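forwarding from the other thread:

> can someone predict this with 2-oxoglutaric acid?

sure thing
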Amino acid sequence: MTIAFQSSLFDAPGAAPRLESLAGTVRRIVLSDGAWLDIRPGWVANSDELFERLLERVMWKADTRQMYDRVVEVPRLVSWFGSSLQLPDPLLTEALFTLNGYYRAPREQVFETAGLCFYRTGDDSVAWHGDRVGRTIDRDTMVAIVSVGAERTLSVRPKGGGETRRFPLGHGDLIVMGGSCQRTHEHAILKTKQAVGPRISVQFRPRWSSAIHDRHAE
Ligand SMILES: O=C(O)CCC(=O)C(=O)O
């Protein structure tokens, strides 16, 4: 796939991507109602190379979903790797193991799957939603997102209404949504009119959890 990509000023050309340490470098932001976010800027060093590898290796597909009586194309390309599938890059496997080692979460919150989104331009987006566990969302679940490529903003707001908080994600950043976040809050990558380059996000989730987008138009 050919795509215009502005490489970062911080990466040495051709430098291999690697994970930096998590210990002592993760900042926790406490939201309301038991929800929290952990942020680790620049967790993946030399992430340009990872962006390029994922762009080439992943079988990106244009997904569709039912929106009332219509089938609509989702405004991003996607790919999904279940717990029995090999991830498309060894660095993602390392990231998954490292996150599980760091969080030591209860069995049902251990990261096992990876969903990938490819946002080609500022017109690509993901609408407001909270992820589900199985058919419902009555349990807490963690979602960890690694972002590579251009910076985009993850917006987060309480489900019942309230302040929207915005977290710019780019260049190898990690954000983890935890506690009650998927039950009590919604998140989105909103469209932008600014000229932004392409971005890939990798979302690690426990086996039973999935992103469900049934409430809002994209
Ligand atoms: O791309 C992102 O950072 C968020 C993706 C997301 O929320 C989802 O696919 O459910």
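The pocket of 2-oxoglutaric acid is lined by residues 115, 117, 126, 145, 147, 154, 187, 189, 201, 203, 211 (CB under 6 Å). thats all i got for now
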